[in-house]
Specification:
mainly alpha; 5 helices
Length: about 150
């Protein structure tokens, strides 16, 4: 129990002290991780059908990824981000639409496509965060405002 509390405290401190760019990267990481877990459950079937015991777990992972994408969407700063923010908005809306459909139909192709695109966006943010240094938590960067 003490170990779990220590890990939780460590993660919380990491989030509280992260720069805005690092927070965006953490969100992308979490979304990709959830999609990977959903895909793993979808593809671990030994037959044509999905194990009914996994349906709820798959759905939870895909819904968590959608929640993260929604958080990225509402964090967009259209005043500072201009065309980039508008493009990201359209992309995030499309991601959530595709994940909704994929969750209903258990379409691994759609999930994989979104997972790969999120990973590419994360790579871009890693590069941006590296160029901008550590940045301050709560600062607006690249059309996102996660100041709260």
């Amino acid at each position: 129990m003490a170990y779990t509390n220590a890990v939780s405290s460590y993660k919380e401190t990491g989030v509280k002290t992260a720069s805005q760019g690092q927070l965006v990267i953490m969100l992308y990481d979490a979304a990709v991780k959830n999609l990977d877990q959903g895909l793993e459950l979808l593809t671990s079937n030994t037959g044509e059908k999905i194990d009914p015991r996994n349906i709820e777990k798959i759905s939870k992972h895909l819904l968590k990824a959608q929640e993260i994408i929604t958080e990225l969407t509402v964090s967009l700063d259209f005043d500072q981000g201009g065309e980039v923010a508008k493009n990201l908005f359209s992309l995030y809306v499309w991601f959530n639409k595709e994940l909704l459909e994929a969750n209903i139909t258990h379409d691994t192709r759609r999930i994989t496509a979104i997972r790969n695109q999120l990973n590419e966006l994360k790579s871009a943010w890693v590069e941006i965060a590296g160029k901008n240094g550590s940045g301050g938590a709560g600062n607006s960067i690249g059309g996102l405002n996660i100041a709260g």
